[in-house]
Amino acid sequence: MTDSIMSKAATMEIPINSNGDTGTLTEDDSLEQAAKLQWSLDEKVGSSRGTRDLQQVMVSGPNLNETSIVSGGYGGTAEEIISTNSIKGSSMHHSNSSLSLTAEETTRGVAVEKLESVRKWGLNTYKCTKQMISERFGRGSRTVDLELEAQIEVLRDTKRKYENVLRLARALTNHFYNMVQTQHALGDTFADLSQKSPELRDEFGYNAETQKLLCKNGETLLGAVNFFVSSINTLVNKTMEDTLMTVKLYENARLEFDAYRSDLEELSMGPRDAVTMARIDAAQQQYQVHKEKYERLRSDVIIKLKFLEENKVKVMHKQLLLFHNAISAYFAGNQQQLEQTLKQFNIKLRPPGADKPSWLEEQ
C-alpha cells in the first residue's frame, strides 16, 4: 500500500502557470496524507535499524577508511562507498612526484652551476698559462711596477738573511743549553767528590761552587737568547710571511690582468662584426674586473710593505740590544747586569731546576 501511494505521489504532475507560479492542486490532501504515512513507517523502520547500527558502532567503532557519498536527483537516491585509502594514495603519489621533481630540478641546477664554474676556471687557467708562456719566451708584454718589484725583491732577500740569523741563533741556543746541562752535572760531581775526598774537599768544593754559579748565569743567558729567538721567529715566519702571501696574490692578479688585457687587444685588432663586438664587450668587462682587483692588491702590498719595514726596525732594535747586553754581561761575569737586562725586557726565566728545554729549544 505504501509503495502504491508513493508511486502515485512521485508520478503526479505539478502544473506551472504562465507566470511561473504553481497552480492549485486538487490532490494536496492526498499527498499530505501519503507523506505522513510514509514518515511514520520510516520512523518505525529507522528506529529499529538505528538501534542495530548504534550497537554495531559501539562494538566495532566507525570505519574511518570509508566515506559515504550520496548522489541522486529528485525522487531517487544512489549511495556509493569510496575508500579513503585510494584518496590518500593518490594525494601521496602527487606529493611524492612533486618532491621528486623539485629535488631533480635542484640537483640539475647545482650541476649546471658547477659545470659553469669549472668552465670559467678552465678558461681563466688557459688564458693565464698562455700569458705566462708568452712572457717567458719574450713574446708577450707584462705590466711592470719597477719601484714596487724592487721593494718586493728586497723583502725576499731580507727574509732569507733573517732566516739564516734564526737558524744560527737556534743552534747557539741548543749548544749553550747542552753546555749548561754539562756544567750542572759537573758541579754535582764536584760536590759529591768533595764529600767523599777529605784531602781534596776544598778544591772540589770551590770548583763545584764555580760550576753552579756558571750554570745559574747560563740559565739566565739562555732565557734572554730564547726570547731573542722567539721574536725573530715571529718576525720571519709570521709578519714577513703574511706580507709575502699578499705579494703572491698580487702577482697572480697581475698575471690575470695581463692575460685579459692581451685577450682584449687581440679581439680589438680583428673584424668588427656583430659576434666579435659581443665578444669585445664581454672581454672589456672581464678586463675591468681584473684591473680593479690588480690595483686593489697592489695598494695592499704597498701598505703592508710600509708597515712591515716600521715593525722590523722597531723589533730588531729591541732584540739586538737585548742580545748584546745579555751576551756581554754573561761573558764579563757580571751577574747583576745580566739579571738587570732580563728585567729591562720583562723576560721571565723557567723555574729553577727544570731540565727540560723550552719548546723553542726543541724545534
Can you give a write-up of this model?
By secondary structure, this protein is mainly alpha-helical. 79% of the residues lie in helices and 3% in strands. The chain contains eight helices and two strands. Strands 1-2 form a two-stranded antiparallel ribbon. The longest helix is centred in the middle third of the chain and has 68 residues, at 201-268. Mean pLDDT is 76; it is low at 1-32, 44-51, 53-88 and 359-363.
Distance between the termini: 116 Å
Tell me, rounded to a whole number, the average pLDDT: 76
Following the backbone from N to C, one meets helices and strands in this order, namely HHEEHHHHHH
Strand order of the largest sheet: 1-2
Shape verdict: elongated
β-strand percent reads under 5%
Structural class of the secondary structure composition?
Answer: mainly alpha
Q: Would you identify the regions where 5 or more consecutive residues have pLDDT less than 50? A: 1-32, 44-51, 53-88, 359-363
What's the total number of strands?
Answer: 2
Helix content: over 70%
In angstroms, what is the radius of gyration? 50 Å
Largest sheet: 2 strands, antiparallel
Q: With helices defined by DSSP (H or I, 4 residues minimum), what is the helix count?
A: 8
